Amino acid sequence: PDRVKAAFVSAEDKNFYQHPGIDISGLARAVIVNVQNWGSRRPVGASTITQQVAKNFLLSSDQTMGRKVKEAILSFRIEQAYS
């Protein structure tokens, strides 16, 4: 139902319909919050729904910069391929 889709997008990726697979403003916000909370809290994520799909279906769940770069590239390609 449309209401469930709207709730999911609101909770997971508020800018889902505006970004090209990577939410630059969300990424910047997460970097700032993580620097401010360095070592005291669990890091804040900045993955879009598309990035989560790329990770869960196409990549491993390694927590490395290499995987994040691959995830970003795949997300951009997925967004270009599908409306």
What does this protein look like?
The protein has 83 residues and is an all-alpha fold. It is 61% helix and 0% strand. The chain is built from four helices and no strands. The chain has helices at residues 2-12, 24-36, 49-58, 65-81. The protein is globular.
Summary keywords:
83 residues, mainly alpha, 4 helices
How large a portion of the residues is in β-strands, by DSSP E? under 5%
User: Sheet bearing the most strands, described?
Assistant: none
Number of helices, where a helix is a run of at least 4 consecutive DSSP H or I residues: 4
**Radius of gyration computed on alpha carbons:** 13 Å
Flag low-confidence runs.
Answer: none
Distance between the termini: 19 Å
Structural class: mainly alpha
Measured as a percent range, the helix fraction is 55-70%
Number of strands: 0
Average of per-residue pLDDT values: 88
Q: What is the global morphology?
A: globular
What sequence of helices (H) and strands (E) makes up the elements? Answer: HHHH
